[in-house]
Amino acid sequence: MSEHHTRRRVLKAVGGITAALAVGGGSALATAPAAGAAEDGHGLHVVDRLETDPRMWFYRFQTDAIGWQPAVNVLLPDDYHTSGRTYPVLYLFHGGGTDQDFAAWDRAGIRELSAGKPIIIVMPDGGHAGWYSNPVSSNTGPRNWETFHMAQLRPWIEENFRTYAEHDGRALAGFSMGGFGALKYAAKYFGDFASVSAHSGPASLRRDLGAVVHWANASSAAVDLAGGTVYGAPLWDEARVTADNPMENLERYRDKRIFLVAGTSPDPVNWFDQANESQVLAGQREFRAALDGAGIPHESYEEPGGHVIRGDLVVRDLDGMIERLRKA
């Protein structure tokens, strides 16, 4: 294969794995008096909060891990304030794009989709193209999303909310880039999470000449890192790619609940959607075949349409993870 055709194949494959999901505007946020949560801990300092809504509580943090102040929405069960019970927790990650942030799942209707379900849902910022990673390089200050999520936010949540701080009490899920983040964290922190779900999330980093790695590098350089990259360029940090690649860490998914969704008919007119979901579908099929070969059960869906959140499958996913996790 010529160099020209190789480059063209890579560029076609990486054309849009992390398409933004435009689902409406965000809601206004204001500060509110403290309601008992610790102000400091695990490298986090709360600089803003809103705890007036019965279910959706908002926090913004100062942290050395991120060069700006990331936020998180915490969606509580309907009876959280009256039951006195402890609940399982889901860390739910947003996709990539300049309109994607901690409020993306709220705009996508997660309050309604989770109504009546006994689970706490934590939805943090992950950067517009942060890829749920500590990047190899950044020219715009620290963007260590993995450190923020796993070393800082998770213990802070467990100290300030009634959650089960154990393997059978935690789940991960996400859309697009966030689906990749869920798969990545489930493998790297395999003793900490019992359920993982990827809604149109890529599951194979090295296929198609490393299409997902190239797109992670290109998108992070353009949007988040001012020319820095997640995996290194022109040469990759191969150890990081291997550590993050679901396909190279199959045994770390054993005994977990695994839920995968991909679209089979992306919009043929929308090149961005076509490139996104075509790559996701092929990667998930490769991952599923490898799981089958290793004798690792999983639940998977191929649905008509492209790179979108499918609310009915989000509800099915929530019900499945609640069944798998420790009960409230």
TrEMBL record:
It catalyses: an acyl-CoA + a 1,2-diacyl-sn-glycerol = a triacyl-sn-glycerol + CoA; 2 alpha,alpha'-trehalose 6-mycolate = alpha,alpha'-trehalose 6,6'-bismycolate + alpha,alpha-trehalose. Pfam families: Esterase (PF00756). The keyword Cell wall biogenesis/degradation does not apply. Keywords: Acyltransferase, Transferase. It comes from the Bacteria. PROSITE patterns: TAT (PS51318). InterPro entries: AB_hydrolase_fold (IPR029058), Esterase-like (IPR000801), Mycobacterial_A85_antigen (IPR050583), TAT_signal (IPR006311). Its EC number is 2.3.1.122, 2.3.1.20. It is an enzyme of class 2 (transferase). Belongs to the mycobacterial A85 antigen family. This is Acyl-CoA:diacylglycerol acyltransferase. It comes from Saccharopolyspora taberi.
